[in-house]
Structures are given as structure tokens and as C-alpha cells.
TrEMBL record:
Gene: Slc16a12
Family, as annotated: Belongs to the major facilitator superfamily. Monocarboxylate porter (TC 2.A.1.13) family.
Annotated organism of origin: Rissa tridactyla
Alphabetical keyword list: Cell membrane, Membrane, Transmembrane, Transmembrane helix
Function: Functions as a transporter for creatine and as well for its precursor guanidinoacetate. Transport of creatine and GAA is independent of resting membrane potential and extracellular Na(+), Cl(-), or pH. Contributes to the process of creatine biosynthesis and distribution.
Protein name: Monocarboxylate transporter 12
Main location: membrane
Length: 485
């Protein structure tokens, strides 16, 4: 397979965007619509809020917890194979859920099996968009991720209608057939090789630090069995470290902690918006319509924020755009308990939906800016993995608070403060990094603009983590060591 000098920013890339768009409809939109089944499950099985909320929690948790598995299959087997396998598993989980006789049955089929299927599809499809686009990356992600909003807008009233016509069992059976479209999406994911991609296992043998004797042994073995060469212990260790060396980057660590609090705050809203609306006297159709509004405005947030952050004036400030969107969603959650009728809940759905679409679009963009395109698939797997525990814990905790206090106020306040803390943490980290970089540059300017390092016989590499590459110049001569600042 020929290596491309860089992402093509078009061509088959738009088919990749279309495939990712359908993947987000079949995964994230379907997951959101599970909240419409909440009241049906609660009434049919006669359980409280906390126990019923575990269904949605396990779906989200399994999807994010197994995201690294999806990245692993995509990197070492094929993105197409991973997504097709995920589609089959997700469909099987929904179909088996239509025959459920207890909540525990739903935990396993709708929660674990369907969530695992979604995991194998979601992160690889998103990573493929990042490989095909660079200049228009945010716009491409905006279009691709808008599938979540469009899917929610269309599926929310459709699912409510299916429940009324065929009961919740029939609705789950039909959804099981619908998510088989993930197999079609997988077929669209044509792989691409970029020159900046990290070296693969066979290329490991060409590295200078591998002893000659070891190279010869491995090459001799490869004549008899290519598998021995490809899957030798040394190659696997090298590739595994190279795929996940971004975990030690300070910027990624801060982003990871911020994601934990953001994920805790955003999940309960999609579970409890419909039950909350019903509790304040809104009809079933109006409650489903609120989810539809949230979904369609989510689309606008995806596309417009993606387009705006691709502009030259905002391209360097994507982190701040991301944290602003997360903070606004947190504020929306804080005000939700005082909105107790349908006319007031409509503006909430507009505002929350817009900024939800905005920051969801920017998650892969910000991750790519931190770790680079070559590590994007593995990094997204880790980022979505970090969503798992908050997604698992937050809806049942919110349900426990509802059962204990008899009100949704405490649950929504906790969500709001969690998202605001996530935004504030990332903001302070970015400001601290900027101040530190400015300080280091000022010190460099005081002692001389450039740093010349002379060594005996070779170039000496100087570690300047907080300085731009242009601030350090390396020179080499064959004689005496000399240093000049």
C-alpha cells in the first residue's frame, strides 16, 4: 500500500465522513434513545430509578470501556473488520433484549453485548476521519459527529411511536435490525497509509539499535515463517510502547482528568431528561420532542463549531473553545431544576444541545492536537475508555439521589458542577502552560536568541520541552567540545 505524504483532505475522505456519520447514528443516537425506554422498563419490571438506570449506564460504560479494544483491532487487523464485527454484536444484543424477562437480562444483552458492539465501531470510525483530513479536520468531524444529533432528532419520536405500536419489545427488535447498517459503514472504511505513521513491526528490523545478530536471526526465521517475524516479542513490545507513549505527555494527562469530570456530568442528563419532563407534567410526546430538539440543535452545534474552529482566528484556540462549550453545558444543568414546564424546557434543549454538539465535535480534534495524527486511534481509545467509569456510575448515583431526595435538583446540580470543574481545570492548565512557555522564552531572549551546542563527533540533542523547535539550533564539529550561548 502506497504511503501518502499527508491527509488528502477530500476524495474518498468524504465517504469516510459519511460512514462515520452513519456510525454515530447507529451508536450514540441509539444509546440516547434508550432513555425513552426508561419509563417502560421501570413500569414493566416494577423497579426504582437507580436499578433501572443501570441499563443505560452499562451500555455507555461498555462502549467506552472497550474503546481501546476497538482501536487495537483497527490497528492490528482492520478497521473494516472491527466495525462489521461490532455491528453484528450490537444487533444481536438488541434482538436478544427484546426477549428479556428481567433487568439482569437487559444488563447483559442491552448493556454488555450491545455496548461491546458499539465500542468496536465508534472509536475506529472517528480515528479514520482524522487520518483523511488535516486542514478541514474540524469541519469533517462536525459533519461526521452530527449523526448523533440527526439520529436523535429522527429516532426519538420514531422510537416513541414504535413503543406505542409494537410495545418496547417490538421497538428493540426493530432497532436491532436498524443497527445492522454498521456492517455497511464498515465496508466504506478504506485504510490509508501516511508517511508520518509510526513504523510497523516488520520495519522494526531496520532500526539501528537492534543488534545485528538479532536482526539476522529474525530475518532467518522470517524465511520459514513470516508470522514469527511479525509477532516476535521484541516487535510487539516496540509497537505497543510506540502506540501508547503519549500517555506520559503532561498535556494528555490534564485532558484525561478533565474528560473524567466532563463524562460524569453529561451522562445523567440524557437518561433523566424525559423522566424529569414527565414528572413536571409534560406529556409523553412533548418529552420525546424535547429529545428531538436536543438532537437537531446538536447537529447545528456539530457543524457550526467545527466550521468556526477551522477558521484561522480560532484554530489556535480550539482548547478554549472546547472548555467554553463544556462550561456552558454545566451552567445549563445548574438551571434545569427551575425549568418546570414545556415552554421553559424547550430553550434548555436548544442551549444544551448546541454546546453538547460543540464539545463532542472538538474531543477528537483537541486529542489530535495534543498527541498528533499518528497516535490518534490509540489516544481516542484511551479518551473514550476514560468515559467508561463516569458513564457507569453517574446515572445510578443520580437515580439514588432522586430516590433519596424525591427531587431531581441534587442530581442536576452535581452534573452541572462536575462539568464546570472539568472546564475550569483545563482552563487553568492551559493558562499555566502558556505562562510557563512565555517565561522560558523571555529567559531565552535574555541569554541569547539561539543556543549553539558543539560536541565531539556527533550532534547532541538538547531537551527543550517547553520551547519551539526554532528556538534551538544543533551544530556538530569533529574536534574539541565547545559551548556558546
Amino acid at each position: 500500500q502506497a504511503r501518502h505524504p499527508g491527509p488528502p483532505d477530500g476524495g474518498w475522505g468524504w465517504m469516510i465522513v459519511a460512514g462515520c456519520f452513519l456510525v454515530t447514528i447507529c451508536t450514540r443516537a441509539v444509546t440516547r434513545c434508550i432513555s425513552i425506554f426508561f419509563v417502560e422498563f421501570q413500569a414493566y419490571f416494577g423497579q426504582d430509578y437507580a436499578r433501572t438506570a443501570w441499563i443505560h449506564s452499562i451500555v455507555d460504560c461498555a462502549t467506552m470501556l472497550c474503546a481501546p479494544l476497538g482501536s487495537l483491532i483497527s490497528n492490528h487487523v482492520s478497521c473494516q473488520v472491527g466495525i462489521m464485527l461490532g455491528g453484528l454484536l450490537a444487533s444481536a444484543g438488541l434482538i436478544l433484549s427484546s426477549f428479556a424477562t428481567s433487568l439482569e437480562h437487559l444488563y447483559l444483552s442491552l448493556g454488555v453485548l450491545t455496548g461491546l458492539g458499539f465500542a468496536l465501531c465508534y472509536s475506529p470510525a472517528i480515528a479514520m476521519v482524522g487520518k483523511y483530513f488535516n486542514k478541514r479536520k474540524a469541519l469533517a468531524y462536525g459533519i461526521a459527529m452530527s449523526g448523533s444529533g440527526i439520529g436523535t432528532f429522527i429516532l426519538a419520536p420514531v422510537v416513541q411511536l414504535l413503543i406505542e405500536q409494537f410495545s418496547w419489545r417490538g421497538a428493540l427488535l426493530i432497532l436491532g435490525g436498524f443497527v445492522l447498517n454498521l456492517c455497511v459503514c464498515g465496508a466504506l472504511m478504506r485504510p490509508i497509509a501516511l508517511k508520518e505513521d509510526r513504523k510497523t513491526a516488520p520495519e522494526f528490523l531496520e532500526q539501528d539499535y537492534v543488534p545485528k545478530a538479532q536482526k539476522q536471526d529474525l530475518k532467518r526465521m522470517s524465511v520459514c515463517s513470516p508470522l514469527i517475524k511479525a509477532w516476535s516479542h521484541e516487535c510487539l513490545c516496540y509497537c505497543s510502547w510506540k502506540e501508547y507513549d503519549f500517555l506520559l505527555m503532561p498535556g494528555f494527562m490534564v485532558l484525561a482528568v478533565s474528560v473524567l469530570f466532563m463524562a460524569y456530568g453529561c451522562s445523567p442528563l440524557f437518561v433523566y431528561l424525559v423522566p424529569y419532563a414527565l414528572s413536571v407534567g409534560v406529556s409523553h410526546h412533548q418529552a420525546a420532542f424535547l429529545m428531538s430538539i436536543l438532537g437537531v440543535i446538536d447537529i447545528i452545534g456539530n457543524v457550526t463549531f467545527g466550521w468556526l474552529t477551522d477558521r484561522r482566528c480560532l484554530k489556535k484556540h480550539r482548547h478554549f473553545c472546547y472548555l467554553f462549550a463544556v462550561g456552558m453545558d454545566g451552567l445549563c444543568c445548574l438551571f434545569l431544576p427551575v425549568l418546570q414546564n414545556f415552554p421553559l424546557l424547550v430553550p434548555f434543549s436548544f442551549t444544551f444541545g448546541y454546546f453538547d454538539g460543540a464539545y463532542v465535535t472538538l474531543i477528537p480534534v483537541v486529542t489530535a492536537d495534543v498527541v498528533g495524527t499518528s497516535s490518534l486511534s490509540s489516544a481516542l481509545g484511551v479518551v473514550y475508555f476514560l468515559h467508561a467509569i463516569p458513564y457507569l456510575v453517574s446515572p445510578p448515583v443520580a437515580g439514588w439521589l432522586v430516590d433519596t431526595t424525591g427531587s431531581y435538583t441534587a442530581s442536576f446540580l452535581l452534573c452541572g458542577f462536575s462539568m464546570i470543574f472539568s472546564s475550569t481545570l483545563l482552563c487553568f492548565a492551559r493558562l499555566a502552560k502558556k505562562i510557563k512557555r512565555t517565561h522560558l522564552r523571555s529567559l531565552t531572549n535574555d541569554t541569547g536568541t539561539k543556543q549553539h551546542i558543539w560536541t565531539n563527533g556527533a550532534i547532541a540533542y538538547s531537551v527543550a520541552a517547553e520551547l519551539d523547535q526554532k528556538d534551538v539550533e544543533f551544530l556538530a564539529v569533529d574536534t574539541n567540545s565547545y559551548s556558546n550561548r
